[in-house]
Structure formats: C-alpha cells, structure tokens
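New to this. Help decode both lines:
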Amino acid sequence: MIDFETARAALLEQHECRLKTVRLPLAEAANRILAQRLSAKYPSPMFDNSAMDGYAVCDSEGSLREFRITGRIQAGETAQNPLAEGEAVRIFTGAPLPPNTTAVVMQEQTETDGNRLLVNAEIQAGQNMRLKAEEIEVGQELLAQGTKLNMAALGLAASQGYAELTVYEPLKVQVFSTGNELVEPGHTLSDGQIYDANRYQLLAWLQELGLQVSDGGILPDDLTQTEAALAAAAGQSDVVITSGGASVGEADYLKQAIEHIGSLAMHTLAIKPGKPFAWGHIGACKVFILPGNPVAAFATSNMLLLPVLNKLAGKQARHWQLPKVTAKAAFQTKKAIKRREFLRVVLENVEVGETVVKLLPNQSSAMLRTCTAADALCEVPAGKTVSEGDYVSVYLLPN
C-alpha cells in the first residue's frame, strides 16, 4: 500500500496547469483565477490623508491645546496651503492633509468657538494620519499569479486602476458514476440497487470550487459503452472523475476502457476511508477514479483530489489543500490500525482560547450522514491511537 503523503506528492508532481488564458473586464473576472502577476501602479495611500473626521493640526511640540482654524478640506479637494504652528483645518475622512500636519484630532475630542479650536485630549504625533505609500509602494506585488479573484482581490485591483485582468479559463471537469447497481434518484429501485449519491456530491463540490462541471451520468458495466463515453468526455474536458470500479476484484470494465484509450495507474492507498484510488490520462485529459463508498469518495476528494484540482486550475500552492490546524481531542480511539485514518469530527469551543475535537458517531465508509455534520477531518497516523487530551491535526472542511 502507498502512504497518503507519498500518493499526494506523486499526484502533485505529475500534474501541471495547462489552461489557456483570457483577458476579461474587471466586472467579469469575479472568482476566476488570476494568470498574471499584478504590480502596484500607484502608492497606497496615493497621498497623505485623514483617517477620520476631525481637525488636522500643526503642533511640533505636542503641547498645544488651542489652535486657530484656517480652513476646511473635504475628500476630493486639494490641500495646497501649509499649516503654520498653532493652526488647524477642519478635515474629513480621506481628505488630503495640508503640508506640516503633525496629527489629526477626532472631532469628538474637540470644541470650537468661532475660529478657535479647543482640544480636550492628548495629541500624539502622527495620530489618525494615513501616509503616502505606507501600505503599498509602486512596483510592489499587488496580487500573485494564481490568486482567486474574490471580493477583496477585485477591490484591490480596482483601487490600482486595473480595468482588465488576464485569467485562466475554468478547468473543465466531467463526472461519472459506474455500476449497474446505481439508479438515478427519483426512479424506482429494484432488488440489489441503490441510488447514486457519489455523482451528486461530486458535482456540488466541484461547482463550489469554481470549476466548469458537466454531468456524465452513470456508466453501465459494459466495456464498449464505457470506452465510448470516456473517449467523448476526454475530448471535451480537462479532467474526468469517476467513482467505483477501483477496487481489486471488481468488474474491470472501467480499467480496461481507460487502458485501451489512455493510461491508468491503480493504487492501494494506506488510508481509511478510501483505500482504492487511481489516476491516469486519456490524451491530454486527466482521469481520476475514486472509491465507490460515499464516505471514501468524500474523504479522498478532499484530501487527495482537491490539491491536484486546485493546481490544475492554476491556484497558488498555499491554497491547494484544506486548511490544517491543531486542536485538543475530546475522544479516544480503541486501537491502532495500519492505515492513516481520517475521522469525521466537529469542533467546539469549551472555553476562551480552547477548541476541542469531538468524534461523530458511525464512522463507517458507507454512512454519509456524518459528512453533512462534520466540521473537519481529523488525521490519525498509521499505527497510532488518540487519547483524550492529545493534540491532533484536523483539516477544516468548507462551510
């Protein structure tokens, strides 16, 4: 059996982003993956400005409490006249600071009498001032290649005047299930049949990742039909994902079909759930075969398939995998097993600064309900047990 980390490393090493790029208007680039490095064209802030409504004052010693008001500056106006010692101007958030400003005093800490300003609090040099380029300097990296253009990233690009961005085309993924025992939800079941759950959980998950997803349906246990469907899918997709048909001893129509028209490496992984797992290609299209058990498909999707799909989609390496944190176990395991195990768990805050991991019941690889309740997958290394109070590694599932 192959170790989990060895398999993950091999998957990442063997797959590269080969997507085409397109240049889009900023408003159409939301949630796409940036295919260029963006550099700052302007400093941020672009000029010295006020961080709040109040008064810009000139007090070189920091000892004055009374000033003469000489003007008023709003956002969008210019500040050409420098302040002299003991002078102040009424100023608003985002407005440029006049030369010689030493601090901005919030309006709540002041009183006025005509053109006299009285300050009733200590004045710290530089307070409430946003200085030119203190956040970003011209030429500094603004957004790295591979950044997902979410709300914050698009706002930052817009703040620098970028009207168009070069992004990757979405990764095209087609999803199949395999097996004569599978039936579409809504249809009548015959003896020995079950409803297809894997395909629907995969379709939803892949859409959440921002990929371009298509439904290939259920492949019957028939070599000719399977080969034709996979060949057609490979011709119009970057990735094909199937579930079922990866275990030793199962009908090998899927394996035969892929090997006739492409290449396949089948592996037995030292993980639970999810021992059977395979990957290969049909031409330029990547192929991944997940286990047939719903929970095994859920676990291997999140722990093995997610990193490689994110890499193929062009995302930054630091966002390939689920976020990993350490927390205290509020459970114990009875015995060690020879495979690395991923348990479905929930996280609870029991006191300030303390998060504990609680084990969900029914950890069987066929029991999908726990996946809907889980906050995370708790990693238990091969040959290890968990005792209550131990610190364990957990991979946070998306909400």
Remarks:
- The chain has four domains: 4-19+170-319, 21-41+147-168, 49-130, 324-396.
- The chain is about 20% helix and 30% strand.
